[in-house]
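Late entry, evening session. Most of the bench is empty. Finally got around to the prediction I had been postponing all week. Sequence below, unchanged from the version circulated by S.P.
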Amino acid sequence: MAAPDTVAVRKRPALRTATPPPRPRGPQGPRGRGRGAGLTPWFYLAPALVVLGGLLAYPVHQLGLISLFHYTQAQVSGGEPTTFQGLGNYSELFADEQFWQVLLTTVLFAAACVVSTLAVGCALAVLLTRVRAVPRLALMLAALGAWATPAVTGSTVWLLLFDADFGPVNRILGLGDHSWTYGRYSAFFLVLLEVVWCSFPFVMVTVYAGIRAVPAEVLEAASLDGASQWRVWRSVLAPMLRPILVVVTIQSVIWDFKVFTQIYVMTGGGGIAGQNLVLNVYAYQKAFASSQYSLGAAIGVVMLLILLAVTLVYLRMLRRQGEEL
């Protein structure tokens, strides 16, 4: 009886050694598959990135290149050779006191436009969730109509509404022949109204879509706890909609910082004695009115760097707070 036991004991190690060894985690293992899966979205995005790169990289390259040369009407017509200036155009630009005044005005005006647009858009998005189907459809159509209106057309309509002689606004308010575009702050206020009017639909539609995606149980629980509408927005909706609010905020900053058409049309090219100049209009005057194309290009590069810096800083702050975009 001892022999079978010995044979059985000897066979057990053979069974254990016959099991296949674990596969090494190399390029074909789980880690390799993880790296491949991480690259999959980039393959889908590659065609769009190639198109955007061609449409954006070349103009930005040309803008930066022109800003490094002395490039005026004489160089455009071929009367004088183009000379390399290096950072000379930027030194001349930064030494100009008017540039810093226009930059400060642009930052303040863009900030006012962004805050007003977000406030109006978010308020109307919440309103859409409270009204019935017919008023909601009417408000959506009116907002989309404002959004689809070209900037030149919208600016002209607002000028007619606030016209000193024939505008209905002055008659309703009893202001007589008050000129809204004569004073610096009243002109900026008029342009701000037009910018908000044509920009809030994007915020409204985007935030409304985000609100509709919030589970109804969350809002019902907040209501049962006695939270007011403002409390629900501040403590429930806003934190849940933060990724969407980041997108609309960055988009609004980019749009409002580079406003051109509204200022140029409604203030006649920058207002009396340039009192309503912003950076885009200032660059246009330098490049085309004064034929200093290199200075205009330098202003464009500065604007691009400012917008990139603002966007990156904002995203970095959100990532520090643990937000996923």
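Two things to note before I forget:
The longest strand covers residues 69-70.
The CA atoms of residues 219 and 236 lie 8 Å apart.
Will write this up properly tomorrow.
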